[in-house]
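FAQ

Q: What does a record look like?
A: Structure on top, sequence underneath. For example:
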């Protein structure tokens, strides 16, 4: 029998995007999915959209929460699957994603987390950047380059040991550092793909995100001088990028970003 995969969507006022997210889950070729939606008490039409598909959603919770980390943990606490896949309410799963990941896990029993490729899309759904996933290394721990949390396909046992901590934005950064330190094994699968629109909490509050990740790095054992140096490096890099984007189209700037493939120019 196919193992159960719990797919968890968290949402807040996502009326314009969540329907495509839900459809991408329901249209998976892998069918033994427990779909859970955790809404943070939306005041727009998000709940109406969710209820449109209530016949195919195993569990729906809509109530105020303490933040993204709390919504993640609520979903984990009521899930029953052998594997967990989070999908944000403005992201889209590749149709074969879950099937490919289950197959990979069954062939690689010592792998705990599968990392994959994050396809950044514009408002028309066209991919303008692919952020290639990779396994953790030194630079990963500094910048999380190539550690694409929206693509993570995770054994439930890992989440049983490591829930999300109380960070407003960087809870996924903190979680990744902790599971790396705990010795959990990452794999990489190119067909483990998620399509993501630029934006979201971390993109909109970029400088606050950098500050929080600086604090998280120190909490997770990085020396303060190294964390501080990288913090200022990230700020300078962002300022330079923003200034360049005033004169050069952003999609052309991605050509120069390391570890990323630019397509559909």
């Amino acid at each position: 029998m196919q193992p159960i995969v719990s797919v968890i969507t968290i949402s807040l006022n996502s009326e314009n995007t969540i329907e495509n997210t839900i459809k991408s889950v329901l249209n998976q070729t892998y069918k033994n999915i427990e779909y859970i939606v955790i809404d943070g008490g939306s005041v727009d039409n998000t709940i109406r959209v969710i209820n449109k598909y209530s016949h195919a959603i195993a569990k729906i919770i809509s109530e105020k929460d303490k933040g993204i980390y709390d919504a993640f943990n609520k979903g984990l606490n009521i899930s029953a699957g052998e594997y967990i896949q989070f999908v944000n309410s403005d992201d889209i799963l590749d149709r074969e994603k879950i099937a490919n990941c289950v197959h990979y896990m069954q062939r690689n029993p010592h792998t705990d987390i599968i990392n994959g490729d994050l396809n950044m899309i514009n408002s028309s759904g066209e991919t303008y950047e692919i952020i290639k996933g990779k396994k953790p290394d030194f630079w990963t721990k500094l910048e999380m380059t190539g550690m694409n949390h929206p693509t993570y396909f995770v054994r439930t046992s890992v989440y049983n040991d490591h829930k999300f901590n109380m960070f407003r934005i960087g809870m996924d950064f903190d979680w990744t550092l902790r599971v790396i330190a705990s010795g959990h094994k990452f794999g990489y699968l190119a067909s483990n793909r998620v399509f993501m629109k630029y934006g979201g909490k971390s993109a909109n509050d970029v400088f606050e995100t950098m500050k929080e990740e600086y604090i998280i790095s120190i909490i997770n054992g990085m020396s303060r001088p190294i964390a501080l140096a990288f913090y200022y490096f990230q700020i300078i890099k962002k300022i330079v990028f923003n200034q360049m984007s005033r004169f050069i189209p952003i999609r052309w700037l991605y050509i120069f970003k390391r570890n990323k493939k630019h397509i559909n120019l």
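Q: Is there anything notable about this one?
A: The CA atoms of residues 30 and 99 lie 5 Å apart.
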